[in-house]
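Summary for the steering committee. One of the milestones for this cycle was to obtain a three-dimensional model of the protein with magnesium ion bound, which we needed before selecting residues for the alanine scan. The sequence and ligand used are listed below.
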Amino acid sequence: MNRIAISTSKGGVGKTSTAINLGACLALKGKRVLIIDCDPQGNVGGHFNIASEHSLAELLIDGHKDVIIEVRKNLDIITSGRKRLYNAQRELTKDDFGIFKFKERISFINEFNYDYVFCDFSPTDTLINRAALIFCDKLLIPVSPGIDAIMGAERYIEVSDEIAARGNKPIDIFGILMNLYEGRTVISGEIDNVAREKWGSKVFQTRIRKNVSIGEARIQNQTIFEYAPRSNGAKDFTALTAEVLNVS
Ligand SMILES: Nc1ncnc2c1ncn2[C@@H]1O[C@H](COP(=O)(O)OP(=O)(O)O)[C@@H](O)[C@H]1O
Ligand SMILES: [Mg+2]
């Protein structure tokens, strides 16, 4: 089971769209995928138009295990519980070992034989993110064309090293993903170069191009493969999936 945190300190770089569309493509290839929404914004549930009574919040507060929702064949989600996730966070804060609760309570999924578990993080440094990092063993960091996205990624890698050390395990970079890429612009090329100089082969060969269908699919509560299977977005996520399957 690959446990992958999709995370960075920068918002709006494509964390949630990557979780959904990479997850959906892996599921189409026959892999068993779970996406856990760790963001009180609740965009994973929002993407599939699902507001669940039992969510990550109830799992963390009460140990509720009926939190998994099948949204597509091979593709399950756990919604965040939105505002309720703040309550869960408060509970975790009161407990000296609260940071370890996520890993402990989510362990029931081990029997479901998932190939990939993606945790979709909020961009802010929350206790929920930190607790989820102790469960995850790899980072997937989307980067958009801007120097602040590079800095956000760097900062996040430092923070996550510290947190993972508390769980007595290293956290590897699974991959850095260039998103919102526009081949014709100077900034896209420059940031792509900076990322490849900094992180070398950890940067996925595939770049997800800026593609309006990705945003439109979200509005239609569909994956890119349902909404626009012939779009550049679908092509890029298919290429990314092939790379992911190669390294995991
Ligand atoms: N490659 C892309 N092309 C066009 N729009 C994109 C792309 N990736 C993400 N978006 C859009 O950008 C916005 C932010 O993406 P999102 O995945 O929600 O980012 P995050 O989770 O990092 O905040 C969303 O409206 C999303 O649909
Ligand atoms: Mg998001």
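Key point for the committee: The longest strand covers residues 172-181.
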